[in-house]
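Dear Dr. H.,

I hope your travels went smoothly. While you were away I took the liberty of generating a structure for the chain from your last submission, since the lab meeting agenda had it listed for discussion. I wanted you to have the full record in hand beforehand rather than looking at slides cold. The sequence, exactly as received, is reproduced here:
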Amino acid sequence: MRKTLPTLTPVALLLLAVTGGAYAASNAQITITGTVVAATCDVSLSTNNLDLGNYTPAQFTAVATPVAASQKQFTVGVNNCQAPLAANDTANLVVTGQTLGGNANMFNSTGTNTGVMLSQIATPTTYISNGDKLLLATAGLTPEAGDFNGKSLSLQAGLASNATANGVNIGAVNAPILFSFAYN
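The corresponding predicted structure, in token form, is as follows:
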């Protein structure tokens, strides 16, 4: 018996170590989402990062109006679109992002009173709000993928504040903005 016990001891210790490790493991969870839609398009941007530059509080001369020198252009468009289902169906872009309290059109996730305002180049003083749906294209009488493919909007972004001059907070502005395809 004495010879068997010493040979079993390392095996028993190994078994205890492996069993103890099993209790120390953590769990992992993934959330997987998807949506069934009538038609799809891939959304693309001319740039994924847009640096509007550095500005002093004195340059913010009007409330909720972008500093002219800060405004920069970019495009957002769609490709790889399926053919629309019916004549006059529409391709739209939905704009979402965190905004300043009380300013649905001033995007910012950093907590300062300065944010980014967006507008279409064609309508530069009509500012885009969180949740707005922008018309991109309308299907023709005989719908085909080309009715939506390659369509884009020219937009501009600029820094603005809900205060002027001395009331403007110093600090970084970060505004992640999502453009999603919406059919009809």
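Two observations you may find useful: The first helix runs from residue 4 to 24. The chain is about 10% helix and 35% strand.

With kind regards,
E. W.
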